[in-house]
Design a protein that fits this description.
The complex is a heterodimer of chains A (198) and B (455). Chain A has two domains: 2-43 and 174-196; 48-167, Nuclear Transport Factor 2, Chain: A, CATH 3.10.450. In chain A, 45% of the residues lie in helices and 20% in strands. Chain A has helices at residues 2-42, 48-61, 68-76, 172-196; strands spanning 101-104, 108-110, 113-123, 129-141, 144-151. In chain A, strands 1, 2, 3, 4 and 5 form a five-stranded antiparallel sheet that branches. In chain A, strand 3 and strand 4 (129-141) form a beta hairpin. Chain A is elongated. Chain B is 74% helix and 0% strand. The radius of gyration of chain B is 21 Å and the shape is globular. Chain B starts with a helix and ends with a helix. At the A-B interface, helix 1, helix 2, helix 3, strand 1 and helix 4 of A face helix 4, helix 13, helix 19, helix 20 and helix 21 of B.
Amino acid sequence: MVSDERAAAKEEVAALRRPFLIGVGLLLLVMAVLGVVIRQANAGNHRPEGTAERWLAAVGDTTRKGVGADARKRAFELGDPALATDLLPTAGTDGKAAFPDLEVGGATLVDGVARVPYRLHRRAGAGDKELKQGVVLLQRSDERWRVTGLDSAKAEERVPSEGGRIPSRAPLGAFVGAVLLGVLITFGGAGLIRWAGR
Amino acid sequence: MARRGRRTTAPIAAGVPTEMPPSVVAPEGGPEGERDDAYLRLLLWLLVSAAFFEGYDSSILALLLPNIQASFRVSEAVLGITRIPIELGLFLAFFVARLSDRVGRRPMLLWSVVGYTVFTAATALSWDIWSFAAFQLLSRIFLGAEYAIGVTMIVEEFPAERRARALGTLLTFAALGTIAVGILLFLGLQDTALDWRAFYLVGLAPLLVLAFYRRRIKETRRFIQTREAKRAGLGPDAVADEVPMLEPWRRRYRRNLVLVGLVHMLRSIPLFGSTAWWAYYAERERGFTSTQVSIFIICAYGLGCVGYYVCGRSMERFGRRPTAMVYFVGGIFFSVVLFQSSGTLVSFFALLLAVFFGLGMGPVMSAFATELFPTEIRGQSAAWIRNVFEIAGYVFGPALVGILGDHSTGAIGNIGDTVTLLMVLQVPTIYLVWRYMPETKGRELDDVGAAVGIH
């Protein structure tokens, strides 16, 4: 009796192999389609805030032991690191990054120049930190943004932690789309469970 | 006899059982399975290192993302993509863990510890993001296997009345691993010359412990019994065949597998997306210092872990379904608050409650993953749920957040909104649990099968 049941079970499992492989194939196809959709959604986005943030992070790393040369190269790809000479600590950093933290805000565009507010702490020796704030100036170059200078911040140019705009917000349509996707998943999931129970 | 044989060799999913209610996964204890107290204490203390380092290892990646990003000069998108192969290690761990059914628990545990420590130390020597991802992938394969085999050894060696505490201790140590990273971050280990690499060198500790105690670890008695029964040539009624991988997809189990798997997957994508990116979000989008982040982690995770205990108690008192629904609502709500608020105090309490509800629902999720399947396929169905459905969240959650939230090229462009949008994926789980999940509160395992129509 037990052997009969086991044999029937083995037969059922063997019959599942083909549908299982088809299912895996379909799943891979869905993932590939999703990948293409996401790639399309990301295509053409080049935000000055992201460039400013990476440039500041690279400049901060120029004082780090072991990665300084690489950081200078990394910064140079986005803008001349010499522009940030005044930002770097005057005292030694003991091999640590010049900026233990940094934050950027939403950019404003004035005559083709993007102004990105920043707020960071720079090391000031003996474990102290000194607050530095201002604006990174960027200009478009071959579809990408490049740092062209630093400026002092105007009153309204603030980072998010001080009440300023965040660099980018999801559009309202994205939230509506997410809710619709949630509804679709709910019904799709319910249908799948009912199908699996047949 | 036949039942004992099946229980003994059932494969166990990498990582799942530490979250399982022990009463539903453990084989019945018998005099032949008992060890003396001193050995069990030693075994437990050796095995908690696996749980501790699973929490520790995952948290390094989450909490030191900005440092790793700076070292390898890569974008958020590339960071997100590299999480895919890294997290696939936990999926592959299942196959390594299954080898312990053939060669034994003890040798596989020892080799897993060696493999984990070697590749964790190698991670500290990574020269670019791809070597980092490769070492982490290999490290996680062994870490996941070590964790799964450790749990199997506890289940097989501890008597029934002590398994709950033993497995509870394991779960707690996984959370302590996260808190340990927070403490090291607070102490400034990342500011040493080795930067984030120093955190991975700490991962060498288990090898030192193992070198000292390896001769005192014994093979489990249940494994020895099964091996001897096989050698004696006893038939399939004495020692059951290994359960085929596709067994849980048979018609009688399929509905529950799809239901529980879907719920796990929809939970894990936003959950692991948010846990992987919170520290980065706090530092780069909310202006928190690394000290603030570490204090938040230590306090909020420390207090939020109470969620595991409350979940366990309320699922016994109020039932699995209401507990899961309340925890899902709480997890979604406080995660959205966490990723949308800028106030420090609000963020602290939101993190605490997001941990309490979001991670704290582990016991009820494990109850779903185990109680709805009969003993002979419980290990295999738990493997599907954890190593396929849930790992999808480990793999795709962090990747989606990194790609869509990339500050420069992402379609959404910020981490906070991306996590908030992904949280919508958890909403359908509330409906699916309410509408389709069978309630198993107060039922003995033998009754559950009949109640859900699978016996």
